[in-house]
């Protein structure tokens, strides 16, 4: 994401709005949404009440719902797509993260570009970053990608400098964008047109142990569910959670039916496009992350045990057990990602075997979660 590594990022000599001293666009992150919001909340002075320190990415990821699974393929005239998500999905990940953190976050949306800019400038004048939604391919330094650009991306607007803004889009440094170009990227998708969120003074809700328990229970229940997630037609239940992993294993091993991937991706060009898309999502940090985000979730569980649960007792021991299981799962997910991205004609049999093993281990880990 962002400009090539050899390029020199723009750094202005002064800002119309002061740059938040704690905002660092180069901090390592595992997943874009939780990582970006850890930067934004830190720069806004929002602290974890159990530590009195800024929220870690792991804690925010867990509050968002943590991990999950979704798999879909869609056949179009010229291409067959394959989409995978390994975070909590399709539930309200960012909304969960913000509400449970206790931050007082103002969210607004308008159809007016003029009003949207006024709101953005007003937020920046308070010294905090703002988050806006854009079509990423409409950012001047990014190539358009019709498939990726079907979903909006949240980016942080950190400061204003005259008629330009400094934004963090995950490239490791701040990019400069004109007011006109930013407005165009923000207004390109009707559903998210001129959406904005920023932290206001005060506290929304207080993060408690009960909220943490609810977050963990939501993750376990979603993984083990046999019915479709809320808002999803019942017929798609087989595409989500551990049930979705087992469905995927069957489709990978199926060489005869129309659902089998041997037929779905029988055409080499469709296979190259679909598997390339799938690998990019598994290996990237927008829909997934290292080890399918299982190591990040293990960090969350251990942080909860060490802080909110006091570092001892049956509850902490159970969280530690689950954390160990998820760290072990990470290697299996990384191996699967490598199989999906292997050069040459895809071999679906080893992929099917890998997913079967993952599904069994995921079920064991989720059942451990339910005990916490």
How would you describe this structure to a colleague?
The protein has helices at residues 32-43, 57-64, 93-101, 113-125, 179-186, 209-224, 241-253, 261-264, 268-283, 294-306, 314-340, 348-370, and strands at residues 47-48, 53-54, 67-75, 80-87, 103-108, 130-134, 153-161, 164-168, 175-178, 196-203. It folds into 2 domains: 1-30 and 104-204; 31-102 and 207-372, no CATH class. With 372 residues, the chain is α+β, with helices and mostly antiparallel strands. The protein has 12 helices and 10 strands.
Low-confidence stretches: 1-16
Order of helices and strands: HEEHEEHEHEEEEHEHHHHHHH
What is the radius of gyration computed over CA atoms, rounded to a whole number of angstroms?
A: 21 Å
Number of domains: 2
Structural class: alpha+beta
Number of helices: 12
**Distance N to C terminus:** 38 Å
Number of extended strands: 10
- Overall pLDDT confidence: 93
Topology:
Layout: H1 32-43, E1 47-48, E2 53-54, H2 57-64, E3 67-75, E4 80-87, H3 93-101, E5 103-108, H4 113-125, E6 130-134, E7 153-161, E8 164-168, E9 175-178, H5 179-186, E10 196-203, H6 209-224, H7 241-253, H8 261-264, H9 268-283, H10 294-306, H11 314-340, H12 348-370
Antiparallel strand pairs: 1-2, 3-4, 5-10, 6-7, 6-10, 7-8, 8-9
Helix pairs in contact: 1-2, 2-3, 2-10, 6-12, 7-12, 9-11, 10-11, 11-12
């Amino acid at each position: 994401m962002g400009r090539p590594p050899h390029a020199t990022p723009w750094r202005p000599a002064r800002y119309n709005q002061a740059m938040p001293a704690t905002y660092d666009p180069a901090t390592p992150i595992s997943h874009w949404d939780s990582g970006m919001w850890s930067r934004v909340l830190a720069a806004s002075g929002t602290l974890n009440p159990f530590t009195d320190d800024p929220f870690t990415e792991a804690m925010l990821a867990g509050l968002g719902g943590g991990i999950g699974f979704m798999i879909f393929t869609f056949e179009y005239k010229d291409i067959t797509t394959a989409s995978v998500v390994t975070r909590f999905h399709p539930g309200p990940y960012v909304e969960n993260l913000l509400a449970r953190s206790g931050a007082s976050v103002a969210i607004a949306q308008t159809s007016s570009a003029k009003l949207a800019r006024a709101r953005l400038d007003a937020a920046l004048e308070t010294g905090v970053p703002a988050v806006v939604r854009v079509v990423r391919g409409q950012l001047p330094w990014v190539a358009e990608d019709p498939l990726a650009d079907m979903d909006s991306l949240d980016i942080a607007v950190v400061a204003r400098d005259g008629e330009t803004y400094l934004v963090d889009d995950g490239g490791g440094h701040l990019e400069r964008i004109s007011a006109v170009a930013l407005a165009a990227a923000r207004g390109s998708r009707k559903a998210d047109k001129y959406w904005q969120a920023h932290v206001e003074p005060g506290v929304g809700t207080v993060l408690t142990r009960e909220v943490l328990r609810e977050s963990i229970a939501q993750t376990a229940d979603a993984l083990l569910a046999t019915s479709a997630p809320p808002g999803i037609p019942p017929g798609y239940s087989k595409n989500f959670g551990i049930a979705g992993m087992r469905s995927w294993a069957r489709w990978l091993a199926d060489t005869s039916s129309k659902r089998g991937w041997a037929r779905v991706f029988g055409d080499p060009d469709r296979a190259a496009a679909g598997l390339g898309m799938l690998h990019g999502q598994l290996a990237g940090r927008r829909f997934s992350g290292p080890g399918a985000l299982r190591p990040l979730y293990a960090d969350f569980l251990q942080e909860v045990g060490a802080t909110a649960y006091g570092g001892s007792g049956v509850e902490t021991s159970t969280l530690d057990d689950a954390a160990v299981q998820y760290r072990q799962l990470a290697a299996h997910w990384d191996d699967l990602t490598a199989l999906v991205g292997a050069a040459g004609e895809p071999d679906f049999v080893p992929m099917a075997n890998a997913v079967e093993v993952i599904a069994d281990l995921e079920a064991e880990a989720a059942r451990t979660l339910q005990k916490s």
